[in-house]
């Protein structure tokens, strides 16, 4: 935190609270000690309590009873900004700030129950990252959802708001795990994670090198996070190698980033650019890559680090050959009329961003039952291609090979077999 700002903010707060709201703050604590004692205990062991940042600093003082609790402010990130400008600024330029917007940019989001989105029970439980615009807040309120107004409590959870907790790699686990981004599983069973966990258990000297998520992704406490390849594993400019170039174009078609009929930008192109879903020029890719190499080089030789990351890059043409083969096989079924284009698909072409909705969820009777093959294709992209390259970058041989590469070859085999059967049994 900017120290002058700290002094001013805390100074102003102290004056303010002594003069006007000392009583209010005491009353909050007094009453909430009875109705939500765990919460008050959390706050009372926090730095905030130590610094005199009480309930009313974040929630205002308009509410004072059971009847008027809706008057309590549920603070947005801007409230934290008042005293933590530096972290707010960094956060606002990082990828986490796009969580909510990118979730909403995905068509599948709007086919799933709201409870999982605004309600925070599914996608929205992890994508509640990002400073919401006034329009987004309004939409949320109009749907009847009141909470999830703050991203800053995702790593240092309320009401302890602890730096130590946020520095623990477990702070990342809830979101960076599972189906399409098992970074927790990959890291914790890699040599890097093994060293960290051994050290935690007292089985390595304290000073031993053991990199955790924050060391590689939040260097020097920066709240601005981004990686070179990102999540989708596509980038511009397209590669020079003609086969890889063709395969990346096929993937971009299936993401509707490109229009498969014309080769022009497709309907998802704008979203990719707006939420920084992929690096769209060489400079922005190299910037992140070079940052990473300098981090690895704190413990490895630069040549070693560079070679490892280059090898990760050179996996993509191999993964993408399989992926494009799978997409083209399914695309041919659309073209030949064996799969009917769902009404909300942008093109008569497979569309990976429908996620698993391809089977015809309730109310989507237009779906062709045969689109099970689409689900295998989706799994190949979302689950197995992700694991293959993410596993490689996180130094996890099993994820890179058995859970990634090997499963992709299996998916491709299944897609080919399904397509053969579909053609044989058509009409
Ligand atoms: C006389 C008791 C009392 C006092 C004083 C009081 N609260 Fe509450 N507060 C409540 C009750 C009761 C609820 C509702 C709890 C529930 O829904 O289970 C509540 C709810 C809240 C909520 C949650 C609002 C929501 O939408 O879920 C916040 C935040 C809050 N209080 C903060 C404060 C702050 C800040 C103060 C002091 C300015 C304060 N409270 C003073 C009793 C009190
Ligand atoms: C540093 C800011 C900050 C302080 C200080 C603070 N809160 Fe909160 N509080 C939050 C944030 C952020 C949320 C989550 C808002 C949301 O979900 O939209 C929250 C949510 C709540 C809620 C509703 C959600 C829940 O988990 O029940 C209650 C009740 C609450 N606070 C009570 C209190 C009380 C009582 C105090 C003082 C002992 C306090 N808060 C101090 C930031 C703060
Ligand atoms: C009125 C000013 C004020 C507000 C508002 C405020 N803080 Fe703080 N916060 C402080 C002060 C003062 C400290 C102690 C000095 C420091 O670490 O910067 C602190 C410390 C912290 C720390 C470090 C705790 C540690 O373990 O060292 C975190 C994390 C934090 N605040 C998060 C938040 C979040 C998140 C919000 C919004 C929900 C918030 N703060 C709102 C004043 C504030
Ligand atoms: C367990 C937490 C979690 C759930 C549930 C979740 N996501 Fe994600 N999502 C993430 C994380 C973490 C990333 C970043 C992964 C990476 O870069 O490897 C991400 C990435 C994304 C991206 C790409 C963002 C980008 O710019 O790179 C989109 C779009 C997305 N998710 C949409 C969704 C939708 C839609 C759902 C629900 C159908 C969903 N997510 C469910 C955690 C989650
Ligand atoms: C030793 C350094 C290191 C550690 C530790 C590490 N990562 Fe990574 N991470 C990388 C590298 C290298 C990449 C790929 C960067 C690129 O695209 O050039 C990456 C990529 C990512 C991505 C983007 C998608 C992907 O997986 O390729 C996310 C999200 C991510 N890491 C999260 C995490 C989380 C969460 C942890 C802890 C559980 C973690 N990382 C631990 C080095 C690390
Ligand atoms: C992705 C996880 C994550 C999110 C989200 C996050 N933080 Fe942090 N925060 C951290 C980590 C990790 C540290 C410790 C950094 C270090 O010292 O290396 C930290 C440290 C801090 C500190 C203490 C700084 C110091 O050195 O004393 C403050 C204050 C803080 N964060 C505020 C915020 C605010 C405000 C937001 C929302 C805009 C936020 N954080 C969102 C992970 C996060
Ligand atoms: C509440 C859920 C949540 C938590 C906790 C969380 N993240 Fe994330 N993270 C996400 C989501 C969602 C995205 C994708 C954002 C988007 O849509 O662009 C993401 C993206 C990232 C990326 C960028 C990947 C890319 O595409 O370049 C990195 C790196 C990352 N997180 C690291 C971390 C680290 C390190 C921690 C722990 C200190 C952490 N995250 C904690 C949800 C979370
Ligand atoms: C904080 C120190 C540290 C950082 C940073 C770090 N590593 Fe490591 N790395 C280690 C240690 C310690 C080991 C385990 C001992 C060994 O095999 O050298 C290891 C092991 C490895 C291994 C496995 C070696 C083997 O023989 O199985 C690879 C590959 C690797 N690191 C690559 C990277 C890459 C790439 C980066 C940057 C993205 C990175 N490391 C960042 C400390 C670090």
Written description of the protein model:
With 427 residues, this protein is mainly α. The protein has a domain at 1-93. The protein has helices spanning 3-35, 37-44, 47-50, 55-59, 77-81, 85-93, 99-105, 123-126, 134-142, 163-167, 170-173, 183-188, 191-200, 213-217, 242-254, 269-274, 282-296, 302-335, 372-393, 397-425. Helix 18 runs antiparallel to helix 19 (372-393). It is globular. The model is unreliable at 1-21 (pLDDT under 50). Residues 95-96, 98-99, 102, 126-127, 129, 154-155, 171-172, 174-176, 213-214, 217-218, 225-227, 230-231 line the site of one heme C.
Task: Give the tags.
427 residues; mainly alpha; 55% helix; 0% strand; disordered N terminus
Structure summary:
The protein has 427 residues and is mainly α.
Describe the largest sheet.
none
Mean pLDDT metric? 91
Hetero groups: heme C
Structural class by helix and strand composition = mainly alpha
Number of strands: 0
What portion of residues is helical?
40-55%
Low-confidence stretches: 1-21
Residue fraction in strands: under 5%
Count helical runs: 20
Global geometry: globular
Distance between the termini: 69 Å
Radius of gyration: 25 Å
Give me the strand/helix succession.
HHHHHHHHHHHHHHHHHHHH
Outline the fold blueprint.
Elements: H1 3-35, H2 37-44, H3 47-50, H4 55-59, H5 77-81, H6 85-93, H7 99-105, H8 123-126, H9 134-142, H10 163-167, H11 170-173, H12 183-188, H13 191-200, H14 213-217, H15 242-254, H16 269-274, H17 282-296, H18 302-335, H19 372-393, H20 397-425
Helix pairs in contact: 1-2, 15-18, 17-18, 18-19, 18-20, 19-20
Bound molecules: heme C (HEC) (8 copies).
The site of one heme C has 20 residues, from helix 5, helix 6 and helix 10.
């Amino acid at each position: 935190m900017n120290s002058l700002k700290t002094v001013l903010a805390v100074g102003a707060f102290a004056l303010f609270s002594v003069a006007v709201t000392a009583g209010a703050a005491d009353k909050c604590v007094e009453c909430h000690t009875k109705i939500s004692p765990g919460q008050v205990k959390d706050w009372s062991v926090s730095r905030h309590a130590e610094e005199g940042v009480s309930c009313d600093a974040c929630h205002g003082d308009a509410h004072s009873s059971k009847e008027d609790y809706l008057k309590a402010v549920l603070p947005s990130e801007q409230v934290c900004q008042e005293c933590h400008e530096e972290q707010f600024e960094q956060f606002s330029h990082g990828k986490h700030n796009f969580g909510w917007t990118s979730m909403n940019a995905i068509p599948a989001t709007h086919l799933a129950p709201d409870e999982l989105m605004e309600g925070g029970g599914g996608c929205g439980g992890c994508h509640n990252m990002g400073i919401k615009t006034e329009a987004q807040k309004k939409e949320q309120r109009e749907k009847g959802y009141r909470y999830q107004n703050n991203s800053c409590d995702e790593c240092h959870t309320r009401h302890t708001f602890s730096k130590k907790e946020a520095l623990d790699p477990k702070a990342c686990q809830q979101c960076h795990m599972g189906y399409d981004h098992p970074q927790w599983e990959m890291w914790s069973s890699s040599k890097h994670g093994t060293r960290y966990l051994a050290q935690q258990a007292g089985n390595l000297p304290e000073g031993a090198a053991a990199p955790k998520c924050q060391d590689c992704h939040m260097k020097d406490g920066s709240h601005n996070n981004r990686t070179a390849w990102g999540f989708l594993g596509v980038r511009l400019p397209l590669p020079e190698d003609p086969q890889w170039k063709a395969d990346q174009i096929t993937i971009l078609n299936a993401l509707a980033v490109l229009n498969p009929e014309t080769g022009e930008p497709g309907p998802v192109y704008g979203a990719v650019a707006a939420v920084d879903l992929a690096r769209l020029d060489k400079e922005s890719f190299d910037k992140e890559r070079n940052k990473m190499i300098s981090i690895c080089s704190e413990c490895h030789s630069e040549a070693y680090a560079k070679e490892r990351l280059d090898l990760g890059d050179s996996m993509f043409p191999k993964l993408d050959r399989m992926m494009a083969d799978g997409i083209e096989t399914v695309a041919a079924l659309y073209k030949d009329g064996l799969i009917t284009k769902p009404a909300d698909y942008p093109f008569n072409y497979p569309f990976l961003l429908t996620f698993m909705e391809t089977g015809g969820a309730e109310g989507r009777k237009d779906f062709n039952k045969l689109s099970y093959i689409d689900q295998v294709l989706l799994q190949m992209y979302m689950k197995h291609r992700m694991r293959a390259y993410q596993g490689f970058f996180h130094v996890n041989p099993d994820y890179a090979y058995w859970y990634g590469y090997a499963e992709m070859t299996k998916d491709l085999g299944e897609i080919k077999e399904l397509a053969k059967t579909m053609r044989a049994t058509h009409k």
